[in-house]
């Protein structure tokens, strides 16, 4: 790792001093064109989807029902066609993105935060607390998500918050388990000991050294979870315990559209493609981000 | 400068108490380098960790004794006071420089962390000066680099810079050259020796290699099984060792072994922490051992040349 740099001229006389953060931009092949664009569009639709939607996503117009998309012989009024109730698919896709975005962001942020907190607690305390926390995580992982969702929905009713809550409950043990072993690995590294030998307290060591060093792992987990959260929201909506109609979500669009696969293929295909593209992009983007943040692979 | 008296340190291992250091007394003179020599498990690192109060429950604890750094007893210091002492008075050079630096931060920010007392606008200058004096060329250009861009020897120099940035009175080096290759080792050893002379730095040099100790140290304490078996001026101890273990250690590392001659190894293996013999810890491996060695710990005897040893049947000189 270091030999490449040391053999390269690094004195000012031989040229500009090496600037690690510039190296990233000098290699165009490393830029995340595809995933960055898709993630940007997803984030934009997630925040402003209902504003840019050309039609009211919930407006029923039976005279315009089941119109195909413009590239399959439809009219430019409905770019991605209409569904069985004559609602504009593009508008529903855009507003549905808001639900998917909210669910993904909520599940990943809250689940990741809880997971990291538990991991720090377990990894640092060791002993009995560690054992208890690890068992609790194991137990919640063994519990079926769908059953959990049905129970929570039965108690609190349907809604986006409930979906997020279900996904958080399902996701935090995944973070906690992986990050716990990361925390244990990092805190036994010599630089953490060094920080204590230098007179730093435990809190300082955790915030300055342990947490930042878990970020690459956290990012990989989080991007995988973005995909899983979007798909899980879809599955819950598909089962009718997700986001309640008439509000659009990619999941319930997919669920409603499955009956029309033979006659109006665009109804399941459009949200399906959007879902797959977003999940793929989230994974690729996370991969790139992890490498871009790691000083050793940055160049 | 550093006075350790009657130090006993325990580790707690799965409900059992393992005594790693038993009644160690040791004085480090100001401006001199003292080698603590011993095999793994002899308790040499535990002494260093005890001085920095790094051994606290649940890992272990100091059971007995006092450790005075510049007159302050660190065994009685509050955690807050101890952090203060660590921040200002004690510099530590770790064994493995490859993991001693956090891979996420630049060299500059890791050294700055250790020098809060220096004014903000003078920090870069001070660091460049420090790194240059430690033999890092182009120090100014390399401040913004990350640890992975440095070789092992260079990282050890950065680790030394971190230890020195606070301008400590006491430098503790825990086998600082063990993880480095031989050519780099000499460079680091010379550097430590120069720093001690220039800065009147009291140095505790932990090593398992008595030859390395001879290059940089004036005093020596030989440890075995958690006990100091022989200590004093290095030249006196090396020329006329009294303890059979010191003798064996010198024999084992002597360079006048010709080709096809057997290396003189010490037979047997050192005692484990949980099975310490009640008498002299070296008795099971000692050629001179008698009954009293196995049952009673020998007292410390002072010699005319300034060294002292703890043995019932010392080597005849």
TrEMBL record, chain A:
<dbReference type="InterPro" id="IPR050366">
    <property type="entry name" value="BP-dependent_transpt_permease"/>
</dbReference>
<dbReference type="Pfam" id="PF00528">
    <property type="entry name" value="BPD_transp_1"/>
</dbReference>
<feature type="transmembrane region" description="Helical">
    <location>
        <begin position="162"/>
        <end position="179"/>
    </location>
</feature>
<keyword id="KW-1133">Transmembrane helix</keyword>
<keyword id="KW-1003">Cell membrane</keyword>
<keyword id="KW-0813">Transport</keyword>
<keyword id="KW-0812">Transmembrane</keyword>
<feature type="transmembrane region" description="Helical">
    <location>
        <begin position="99"/>
        <end position="124"/>
    </location>
</feature>
<feature type="transmembrane region" description="Helical">
    <location>
        <begin position="263"/>
        <end position="285"/>
    </location>
</feature>
<protein>
    <submittedName>
        <fullName>ABC transporter permease</fullName>
    </submittedName>
</protein>
<feature type="transmembrane region" description="Helical">
    <location>
        <begin position="136"/>
        <end position="156"/>
    </location>
</feature>
<feature type="region of interest" description="Disordered">
    <location>
        <begin position="1"/>
        <end position="22"/>
    </location>
</feature>
<feature type="transmembrane region" description="Helical">
    <location>
        <begin position="33"/>
        <end position="53"/>
    </location>
</feature>
<comment type="similarity">
    <text>Belongs to the binding-protein-dependent transport system permease family.</text>
</comment>
<feature type="transmembrane region" description="Helical">
    <location>
        <begin position="218"/>
        <end position="243"/>
    </location>
</feature>
<feature type="domain" description="ABC transmembrane type-1">
    <location>
        <begin position="97"/>
        <end position="286"/>
    </location>
</feature>
<keyword id="KW-0472">Membrane</keyword>
<feature type="compositionally biased region" description="Low complexity">
    <location>
        <begin position="1"/>
        <end position="14"/>
    </location>
</feature>
<dbReference type="InterPro" id="IPR035906">
    <property type="entry name" value="MetI-like_sf"/>
</dbReference>
<dbReference type="InterPro" id="IPR000515">
    <property type="entry name" value="MetI-like"/>
</dbReference>
From TrEMBL, chain B:
<dbReference type="InterPro" id="IPR003593">
    <property type="entry name" value="AAA+_ATPase"/>
</dbReference>
<keyword id="KW-1278">Translocase</keyword>
<keyword id="KW-0472">Membrane</keyword>
<dbReference type="InterPro" id="IPR050388">
    <property type="entry name" value="ABC_Ni/Peptide_Import"/>
</dbReference>
<keyword id="KW-0547">Nucleotide-binding</keyword>
<protein>
    <submittedName>
        <fullName>ABC transporter ATP-binding protein</fullName>
    </submittedName>
</protein>
<dbReference type="InterPro" id="IPR027417">
    <property type="entry name" value="P-loop_NTPase"/>
</dbReference>
<dbReference type="InterPro" id="IPR017871">
    <property type="entry name" value="ABC_transporter-like_CS"/>
</dbReference>
<dbReference type="InterPro" id="IPR013563">
    <property type="entry name" value="Oligopep_ABC_C"/>
</dbReference>
<keyword id="KW-0813">Transport</keyword>
<keyword id="KW-0997">Cell inner membrane</keyword>
<feature type="domain" description="ABC transporter">
    <location>
        <begin position="2"/>
        <end position="250"/>
    </location>
</feature>
<dbReference type="GO" id="GO:0005524">
    <property type="term" value="F:ATP binding"/>
</dbReference>
<keyword id="KW-1003">Cell membrane</keyword>
<dbReference type="InterPro" id="IPR003439">
    <property type="entry name" value="ABC_transporter-like_ATP-bd"/>
</dbReference>
<dbReference type="Pfam" id="PF00005">
    <property type="entry name" value="ABC_tran"/>
</dbReference>
<comment type="similarity">
    <text>Belongs to the ABC transporter superfamily.</text>
</comment>
<keyword id="KW-0067">ATP-binding</keyword>
<dbReference type="Pfam" id="PF08352">
    <property type="entry name" value="oligo_HPY"/>
</dbReference>
